[in-house]
Amino acid sequence: MTPQESPSTDQRSSAPESENTPHWRVSPTPDGRGTEPAEKPPLFPRDRRWWALFAAFLVLNLVLAFATTGPAARERVPYQPFFVDQLRAGNVASISSLEDSIDGELRRAVRYDPPGDAQPVDVTRFKTQVPAFIDRAELTRDVSSQDVVVNARAADTGRAVWVNLLLGIVPTLLLVAFFVYMIRQQASGGGLMGSFGKSTARRVAPSELDRVTFDDVAGIDEAERELAEVVDFLKQPERYHKLGARIPHGVLLYGQPGTGKTLLARAVAGEANAAFFTMSASEFVEAIVGMGASRVRDLFKQAKEAAPSIVFVDELDAIGRQRSGSGGFSGGHDEREQTLNQILTEMDGFTGTEGVIVIAATNRPEILDPALLRPGRFDRRVAVNPPDQEGRRKILEVHTRSIPLADDVDLDGVASATPGMVGADLRNLVNEAALTAAREGEDSVRQQDFFEALEKVVLGTERKITLSRDERERTAFHESGHALLGMLVPGADPVRKVSIVPRGRA
């Protein structure tokens, strides 16, 4: 059967496609992946009759709230002299007590003037507190002698009956709703932990990748050549498969911070026009043991469904450090090691035909677990070293594309004056030069702005201190001696500027 007669071709859209347009796999796989997710059942019914019944229940509660009122408010009065005087005067009709509190009613209203600025009130229903030092036997005799009705019940709470009923039912309803939600999550495939086990990796589609390519990477040609083969595999994998070759399952980029490891990974995705999943290794580790391994499984599942794709794990040493025999007291080591074991298992499951490349970056390759570095996992290690002078000039050219430069700017001179700087340092240098030119009100960035920015980055901001004429003269003689030795001694660093202006701690 020819390709034009295949059944899968008949089911495709007849719209014309460009030869450069990537063909994404959209057909469901035999195990069901790639199908549209089933709609989750609603947590509550959506029937209008159900909502009408719910509204009627709320209205009934409101009616009960206004119709059923609790007992009238009681006025708090002092135990002595008010309560004791009214008791001995025979004006107390009844009382009820709970521990040291007493609620009661008077036979006739009595005017009570509270202390302070409060207005006097007529008291009929009152409440008071019996001090701890009062003789309970004497109080009992006073109550008995005045024929006071003592109720053998707890004091009222001041709440309506419907409030007590609601407080008893609502917690139960909330608990039932919680279990219903958990059961529905489990039935919909979310698991009891919901989305906690889902990968938090940010997926960048090819159209959203801002087209970072190898043209945006400069100064690290050796690492770029190593990764060009990965790009070629993602573009035309059949070229390697017909010879029985397999692309490395994982590529480890290592080097000091700022050398461009993350930029290289994005450039690989941009060149291959592949989906790009990026995530920091520290995001896999959670307080709940097993969540990191679940996120790893979900991340690799998404990457396989979106193939061709690239999974980029930054700061791999956060979970990939060497495993020890003893676990932490809180189980943190167990969680990290389970996550690492899941990564090793997922990478072992690659057959070379999934179209998924794992790229990881670290600044500390020496502490990684040996199981990560064996062939079949991160079996290709690419060192991203600081650039040389020619590399620094190319990096400066990349970062100054959108910056207007004056005619006197010599990027070769700037590159020769910045030994040891990496891509991030040079990008910061260019930005500081542009800020300096803008602060001075210039229309373009001059060579002087670059060297001013270099002094600020290397030595610090200029300090304004007051020196006497003799101190300035002695300092100038001292620094002139350094400059003369630098120019006369063979092999010494070239002298670029002599200054007695202090900067930072210099």
Please give a structural write-up.
- This protein has 506 residues and is α/β, with parallel strands linked by helices.
- It is 41% helix and 13% strand.
- Helix 6 (221-235) runs parallel beside helix 8, helix 9 (291-305) packs parallel to helix 11 (332-348) and helix 13 crosses helix 15.
Low-pLDDT windows of residues? 1-38, 189-194, 327-332
Q: How many strand segments?
A: 11
How widely separated are the two ends? 79 Å
Give Rg in angstroms. 40 Å
Give the strand line-up of the largest sheet. Answer: 6-8-9-10-7-11
What characterizes the major β-sheet?
A: 6 strands, mixed
Total number of helical segments? 17
Strand content: 5-15%
SSE series = HHEHEEEHEHEHHEHEHEHHEHEHHHHH
Give the overall form.
Answer: elongated
How confident is the prediction overall: mean pLDDT? 75
Structural class: alpha/beta
Question: What is the percent of helical residues?
Answer: 40-55%
